[in-house]
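Posting this for the archive.
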Amino acid sequence: MKLTTLRPILVFLAVASLASSMQPAQAALRVCADPDYLPYSNRAGAGFENKIAEAVAKALGEPLEYTWENTRAHGGFPEFLARTLDANKCDVVMNIPYGSREELTTQPYYVSSYVFIFKKNKNYDIRSMDSGILKRIKIGFESDTPAEGGLKMRGLVPAAIAFDVASDSAQSPVVMLNALDNGQIDVLITWEPAIGAFLQQHPDLEVVAVPNARTLGSPEQYAFPMSMGVRQGDESLRRRLDDVIAAHQPELTSILSQHGVKLYPPQ
């Protein structure tokens, strides 16, 4: 082929290549998540937060990208948000209390509750934090939670056993169920989504929601609406996520149920 014939082809290919390189990359749903904290999330995508993120990304028509960061490191969840979402390393967390002061939150996509868990054959009459039986049995609870606050107001913490699952990366929530199995505690008070995925292996356990109350002092809240969170000021993404939640709520609810997250009506 003559050079005079080849030159226009080379010019066309160069221009086409330049135009292709200048095309903006497809926007991705950038999610902040813990790489090793089931039943919430892990790198293998086995947690319910992973599955929710996948459903949302599909609904938005965007690829899913993760920023992995330990939620149980020093500083806990607030520090996790500071190192990820607030540092602009990602754009959304999939599971945060509605109305959180740290971030903008979407409309809730589920409501769950703290629960009492105990062996069915014990036949305990436990209906609230004021149930008299709680003064006579060994209680286990997650530290730094509303459950601890409620027990503390009633003077029940000294005789109880605290579990630091949410701040100890070496522990799984399963350790709390094991404590019930081996008799170390008689009743566990914990956030249901943290334990629901493991309850299928424990059909002998009863689960009772802790009702909101105002027995002493300020109102006690144990049921919480849960949302997705974005950075302050990112109203555009929040609106898009709200649209996804409204259009795909049955799918999101199904994912939660498949992962053992028991849903409760707002109290």
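Residues 1-23 have pLDDT under 50 and may be disordered. The longest strand covers residues 110-119.
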